Amino acid sequence: MARLATRDEPVVVAEASAVAARRPSVLSDYVALTKPKVQSLLLLTTVAAMEVAGEPSIGLILATCLGGYLSAGGAGAVNHWYDRDLDRAMARTAHRPVASGRVSPRAALTFGLTLAALSVVWLALVVNPLAAGLSFCGFLGYTAVYTFWLKRRTAQNIVIGGAAGAVPPLVGWAAVTGGLDGTALYLFAIVFFWTPPHFWALALLMKEEYAAVKVPMLPVVRGERETRKQILLYSVLLYAVSQLPFCAGGFGATYLAASLILGAAFIYLAVRLLRRGDRRSALVLYLFSLAYLALLFVAMVADVKL
Ligand code: HEM
Ligand SMILES: CC(C)=CCC/C(C)=C/CC/C(C)=C/COP(=O)(O)OP(=O)(O)O
């Protein structure tokens, strides 16, 4: 039955279109499933490793980055699918495409698995089988090992699961050389030891949210002081590991200077967090951790190219 227009209608229409304007497009929802901001740093470590490993062509760099993006993006989509119950319950993640119901769980899972399959085929055919295999291990590490298995079971979830995020430099190295060597393993170790302080600094800020959804992150299970101690411990380990490629002769003075300064700053911020125990120090360390990894990998490239 036809409805009479009312004087309120323009307001209702304006409100409806304002909501529509705020609603992300389908494209931006699918891009969000791939966790693009995290990907930018993963790809930086991939490209830096490629430049350290040899003289890759632009074509090889782009092909490897596409494969890496598909693999890590597929893993991100599978994570959105599996963790939708947790994401829905936490303010930081409630707006995500699957959690908020804009993308169906089945569509997100199909999307994630399709990207992962495309990645394996693409890397195997266009780059090489080792790069494809390593990248698939990263996919399994983030999805099966971290997301499905460890995240909801143990406070060591991020320590073990963090190995997945350390795979991209190996993919880059394998793409250029067809193999792996000591320097490649040091790059893996740097990201591996970087991940716990990176995440735990943020977890300190999100402790209540994780506790509410019963995810056993370190600050929830062992308390804030123990988390701050562990952050300092891993910061010192990270510093030690970051010196190894220099000691092994893989890098020279530029890398040594950068790793000393960046490592000292990391440890200083971790000590400050331990002493002060405030939210601001945790936020500063989290933000610095992002800059640290980017600058350290840029320094590696500068060291070997300049
Ligand atoms: C399993 C290991 C890791 C865990 C649990 C973790 C966790 C997180 C979380 C919860 C955030 C908050 C922002 C968000 O909602 O996405 C974040 C941000 C970020 N992480 Fe990690 N992270 C891990 C490994 C990595 C790795 C290996 C990299 C890259 C090398 C990385 C790069 C980033 C970047 C660039 C951001 C900022 C993104 C933004 O501003 O939205 N993370 N991480
Ligand atoms: C192919 C490959 C090398 C993939 C691995 C990439 C990898 C491990 C990225 C880390 C992703 C990340 C932001 C995890 C967040 O943890 P979370 O999912 O618990 O955080 P959330 O609460 O933000 O979802």
UniProtKB/TrEMBL annotation:
<keyword id="KW-1133">Transmembrane helix</keyword>
<feature type="transmembrane region" description="Helical">
    <location>
        <begin position="58"/>
        <end position="82"/>
    </location>
</feature>
<keyword id="KW-0812">Transmembrane</keyword>
<feature type="transmembrane region" description="Helical">
    <location>
        <begin position="131"/>
        <end position="150"/>
    </location>
</feature>
<keyword id="KW-0350">Heme biosynthesis</keyword>
<dbReference type="Pfam" id="PF01040">
    <property type="entry name" value="UbiA"/>
</dbReference>
<protein>
    <recommendedName>
        <fullName>Protoheme IX farnesyltransferase</fullName>
        <ecNumber>2.5.1.141</ecNumber>
    </recommendedName>
</protein>
<dbReference type="InterPro" id="IPR000537">
    <property type="entry name" value="UbiA_prenyltransferase"/>
</dbReference>
<feature type="transmembrane region" description="Helical">
    <location>
        <begin position="283"/>
        <end position="302"/>
    </location>
</feature>
<keyword id="KW-0472">Membrane</keyword>
<dbReference type="GO" id="GO:0048034">
    <property type="term" value="P:heme O biosynthetic process"/>
</dbReference>
<comment type="pathway">
    <text>Porphyrin-containing compound metabolism; heme O biosynthesis; heme O from protoheme: step 1/1.</text>
</comment>
<comment type="similarity">
    <text>Belongs to the UbiA prenyltransferase family. Protoheme IX farnesyltransferase subfamily.</text>
</comment>
<dbReference type="GO" id="GO:0008495">
    <property type="term" value="F:protoheme IX farnesyltransferase activity"/>
</dbReference>
<feature type="transmembrane region" description="Helical">
    <location>
        <begin position="103"/>
        <end position="125"/>
    </location>
</feature>
<dbReference type="GO" id="GO:0005886">
    <property type="term" value="C:plasma membrane"/>
</dbReference>
<feature type="transmembrane region" description="Helical">
    <location>
        <begin position="231"/>
        <end position="246"/>
    </location>
</feature>
<dbReference type="InterPro" id="IPR006369">
    <property type="entry name" value="Protohaem_IX_farnesylTrfase"/>
</dbReference>
<feature type="transmembrane region" description="Helical">
    <location>
        <begin position="157"/>
        <end position="178"/>
    </location>
</feature>
<keyword id="KW-1003">Cell membrane</keyword>
<dbReference type="InterPro" id="IPR044878">
    <property type="entry name" value="UbiA_sf"/>
</dbReference>
<comment type="function">
    <text>Converts heme B (protoheme IX) to heme O by substitution of the vinyl group on carbon 2 of heme B porphyrin ring with a hydroxyethyl farnesyl side group.</text>
</comment>
<dbReference type="InterPro" id="IPR030470">
    <property type="entry name" value="UbiA_prenylTrfase_CS"/>
</dbReference>
<feature type="transmembrane region" description="Helical">
    <location>
        <begin position="184"/>
        <end position="205"/>
    </location>
</feature>
<keyword id="KW-0808">Transferase</keyword>
<feature type="transmembrane region" description="Helical">
    <location>
        <begin position="252"/>
        <end position="271"/>
    </location>
</feature>
